[in-house]
Design a protein that fits this description.
By secondary structure, this protein is of the alpha/beta class. It has 14 helices and 18 strands.
Length: about 475
């Protein structure tokens, strides 16, 4: 008789990535090989996110083992269902098994060497023989281990519980094109008015159910329109015509939008009512330049925020250059090349001002910008700050939560990134922290998102991004 409950064998990297993975397999059972516990023990020291996750896993296991009879470990420990929010629902949904005896008697010839990965595979093969009635599955975020598992005839899967979406193409883009007959279909229930120099339209219909707060809508043709959803109700919505930052008179710190998406991004960045903005786009789409320009305009011109704080994940593209001397800001300087390049553009003053005037303007701007490392963000609270998180695609969902919850009253957080350029191991486009916040914040009326499409760096860079 076949047992419908599966037996999931967890690799070390799964627990290092998500400490709650123990509780994510519903009614199925979880098996922890002894070699995994050994690897967790070696990874518990330090202040890194991985070390914190390892210590949290150890605490979870300790809580489950508390009061348990050692003789009952063979029968497994009941696992609570943490995904169920009902406090009255306490029925266990699976059991946790630890390796209590030697299972791998002899390493198969196809697995040379006594490595931890090979020990895990050997343990899985022994479990398959011992539990022929059950479906044994190895769960690992290590692609090479999954390949080796397939070679020796084991079924393996990636850990997908942290995936926000099944496909990255389903990610919210922040903008939608209206059909050509949109106004004709809604003209009977259309109201328009002006208020404080702004133009608003109220439209009704069943086709508005897929709209989100602060989503942009546009229509091309003879009567083009670009608007933002400012209010949503049952079967109705209020849209507001947005400012056109492509016009010279509407420049932001000397910067004008060069395309539709950049114009929409500046509308989000310049709105003080929005506390959280995410900008996605490939290299050269203007994410950093637009964010800095909007930040300088609101810090120095409008005094909405006290200063700009910029941070990013320090993941090297090539070989690590080792430890860097100096203070926190000096250590972060090599990682902030994008900041310096964009500041050079933004601090270009009138040539007639001379060298002294240009240096004075540059010093004024730099004095209102602070560079911080992500390593020292935990426990801090930022008041009335304009925070830019660059390269946010390399953050996990937990790291993103840690950063965003640092925001105090009057603070605005901007997340920039390109989910096609993830440099962190075990993160994918669908499990990145940036994807996570874009999806989770799209319903919140005080946030906005836009995906920038066109590169505006240079014709060389634009062609290279397409052809290479």
């Amino acid at each position: 008789m076949t047992d419908p409950r599966r037996l999931y064998v967890l690799d070390t990297n799964v627990l290092m990535h998500d400490p709650t993975a123990l509780f994510r397999f519903k009614e199925h059972d979880v098996f922890i090989p002894m070699v995994v516990l050994e690897e967790l023990d070696r990874g518990k020291k330090g202040v890194s996110e991985v070390a914190r996750n390892v210590r949290q896993v150890s605490r979870f296991m300790d809580e489950l083992l508390a009061g348990a009879d050692p003789a009952s470990l063979r029968d497994g420990l009941p696992l609570p269902d943490v995904a169920n929010r009902d406090p009255e629902h306490t029925e266990p949904h699976g059991r946790l098994f630890f390796q209590t005896e030697k299972l791998c008697e002899e390493m198969p010839l196809t697995l040379p060497g006594n490595t931890p990965d090979n020990n895990i595979l050997c343990t899985c093969l022994a479990l398959v023989k011992r539990h022929a009635e059950r479906h044994v599955i190895l769960v690992s975020k290590d692609i090479n281990l999954r390949i080796k598992a397939s070679v020796v005839g084991l079924h393996s899967e990636d850990y997908s519980n942290d995936q926000v979406l099944d496909d990255v193409d389903l990610l919210y883009s922040g903008v939608t094109e209206l059909p050509p007959d949109f106004w004709e279909r809604h003209e009977k229930q259309l109201d328009s008015w002006q208020e404080e120099g702004r133009t608003f339209y109220r439209v009704s219909g069943d086709d508005l159910d897929d709209w989100y707060p602060n989503q942009f809508v546009y229509m091309e043709g003879d009567n083009p329109i670009e608007a933002r959803v400012v209010e949503l109700g049952p079967g109705s919505a209020v849209i507001e015509l947005i400012d056109d930052f492509r016009q010279k008179k509407h420049s932001v710190w000397g910067i004008n939008a060069r395309n539709r998406e950049q114009n929409m991004a500046l509308n989000l960045l310049m709105d003080p009512e929005l506390d959280f903005v995410t900008l996605l786009g490939a290299a050269g789409t203007g994410k950093t330049l637009l964010s800095l320009a909007a930040g300088l305009a609101q810090v120095l011109d409008r005094n909405l925020y006290r200063e700009i704080i910029m941070t990013r994940v320090t993941v090297p593209v090539g070989e690590d250059i080792g430890f860097l001397p100096g203070t926190e800001e000096e250590k972060m300087t090599p990682w902030m090349g994008a900041l310096m390049d964009n500041l050079e553009v933004l601090t270009q003053t009138d040539p007639e001002a001379g060298g002294w005037g240009q240096d004075a303007a540059a010093d004024l701007v730099r004095n209102r910008i602070r560079i911080h490392s992500l390593n020292f963000m935990r426990g801090r609270t930022f008041l009335n700050k304009y925070i830019i998180i660059d390269e946010a695609q390399n953050l996990t969902a937990k790291q993103m939560k840690t950063l965003i919850t640092r925001a105090g009253p009057g603070t605005k957080v901007i997340c920039l990134g390109n989910i096609a350029q993830i440099d962190t191991p075990y993160l994918t486009e669908t499990s990145s922290g940036l994807t996570y916040v874009v999806d989770r914040f799209k319903q919140w009326p005080h946030s906005g998102h836009i995906t920038l499409q066109r590169g505006e760096r240079s014709r060389l860079a634009d062609f290279a991004s397409k052809a290479l």
